[in-house]
Design goal:
alpha/beta; 59% helix
Length: 448
């Protein structure tokens, strides 16, 4: 087999096989996936099912909801779409790399992406990072080909608007004013339905963007807060050869000071490194760029030296094996009974501290960890929900004390006391489920 011609397809085939084998394992749904599934159901049932979070981008739930409405299992569709996006990301990394380096180095860059532990682990989580990086790379590829793509990446994950901004300023820098205006016009036209949607439902065309910006400041910040070098350390743990991204970036900069890959990766890296909220899944949004630079940086070490090339491959596979996260099945076993509790068909509205409930019930579910204006779980939010429960026909309240939605900010001296009072208020209704596991306690209250 001619590796030059079929190498990328061999890599993708191996990756696909690993994905199919990975499906044999248990993959419990995670928080954000439950939210996007709920939003998909909410949109395509016209508010009769699911849940809604107004600070989320809309492309991913639109995709899931469209196929769900056609009758497909939403998890099957989610996995299928993620397979397409992961393999597409690997392929685009290869295609973009070939614009700047040899096919061998391009294949190495694609290999670095395919066997990145975080990238592989999150394909089953149904989060937005993988679709977002696919659309971002597609945007870059088409830009290199002197074509423009719609604002799909931005509407999949808002920070990907950085990609558009960088490409726009590169055109300005190169004095391609007409192209920059055409690109901006196409971008804004794509956003028009998004602006109209926001205006109709929130009376503000950028309401979702404002809410998203605010939620980043409040959502469990003390849990995910890490120093600026978080992504450097953890990326190197997953691939030590990312060290060569620095000399690789310098080489590309010398060739082309307005290189789109360079400025996009720097901008994304600086943005996420400066956010106090840090998670390795966010690194997915710049890992392909780092992989390209690392392959370029290794060029003088692997040129016509197959032994070095083989060593790099084997060492990356070793890092992939030891760094691939394990599924937290203990967490799932702890909450499974709670989130799958059967709800009576005639029950009223469901309030919940955990979005997974909406996956297992055909009801509208309203999250109580925020209310649109109050974005942090605190005394004011709990007082709001007390008043809401008294005035509305609520069927059930699902409430846990430590899964994320009800975590108190350590700097808030009144929150824990208010939480106990809120639980005491709910205990005035019928308790149909109560379980304590360590420091966590789970309640289901029937208010009918």
């Amino acid at each position: 087999m001619e590796l030059k011609k079929y190498g990328i397809w061999l890599l993708i085939s191996i990756f696909l096989l690993l994905q199919l084998l990975d499906l044999l394992r248990t993959h419990p749904p995670w928080w954000d996936a439950a939210v996007y599934i709920g939003m998909a159901k909410y949109m395509f049932s016209f508010g009769q099912l699911g849940l809604w979070e107004e600070f989320r981008p809309l492309i991913w739930p639109l995709m899931l909801g469209f196929f769900w409405k056609l009758g497909f299992n939403i998890f099957f569709i989610g996995y299928l779409l993620q397979i397409l996006f992961t393999t597409g990301t690997i392929y685009l990394t290869y295609k973009i790399s070939k614009k700047y380096m040899s096919w061998e180095l391009a294949l190495l860059a694609a290999f670095f992406v395919a066997f990145n532990a975080t990238f592989f682990f999150f394909w089953t989580k149904l989060y937005t990072e993988i679709p977002a990086i696919f659309f971002s790379l597609l945007t870059v590829f088409l830009f290199i080909e002197k074509r423009f793509l719609l604002a799909v990446a931005f509407l999949t994950k808002f920070p990907q608007g950085i990609v558009f901004a960088v490409l726009f300023f590169i055109l300005i820098f190169n004095k391609k004013i007409k192209n920059s205006l055409n690109m901006a016009a196409l971008f804004l036209i794509t956003l028009l339905p998004f602006f109209i949607f926001n205006f109709i439902f929130y009376r503000n065309p950028i309401h979702t963007l404002i809410s998203a910006k605010e939620i980043i400041k409040h959502a469990g910040l003390w849990v995910f807060q890490s120093p600026w070098y978080f992504y450097i350390i953890n990326s190197l743990k997953e691939n030590i050869f990312f060290l060569f991204a620095v000399p690789g970036a310098i080489l590309l900069f010398k060739k082309d000071k307005s290189n789109a890959l360079l400025w996009i990766s720097i901008s994304l890296f600086v943005y996420f490194s400066n956010l106090l909220h840090k998670e390795m899944r966010f690194a997915i949004l710049f890992i392909p760029f780092i992989a390209i630079f690392a392959a370029q940086g290794l060029s003088k070490y692997i040129k016509k030296r197959n032994a070095v090339f083989v060593f790099i491959i084997l060492f990356v596979l070793f890092q992939f094996y030891i760094m691939l996260p394990k599924e937290p099945l203990d967490d799932w076993n702890r909450i499974k009974e709670f989130v799958t509790y059967p709800i009576e068909e005639k029950a009223g509205e469901i309030l919940t501290s955990h979005p997974l409930i909406n996956i297992y019930t055909n009801k509208v579910v309203r999250p109580i960890y925020y209310n649109g204006k109050l974005l942090e779980f605190n005394e004011d939010l709990m007082e709001f929900w007390k008043g809401y429960i008294k005035k509305n026909e609520v069927g059930y309240v699902f409430f846990d004390t430590c899964e994320g939605g009800t975590l108190c900010n350590p700097d808030d001296p009144n929150c824990e006391k208010s939480k106990k009072e809120f639980i005491g208020f709910l205990k005035g209704y019928k308790i149909v489920y109560n379980k304590k596991e360590g420091r966590c306690e789970y309640f289901i209250f029937s208010l009918q």
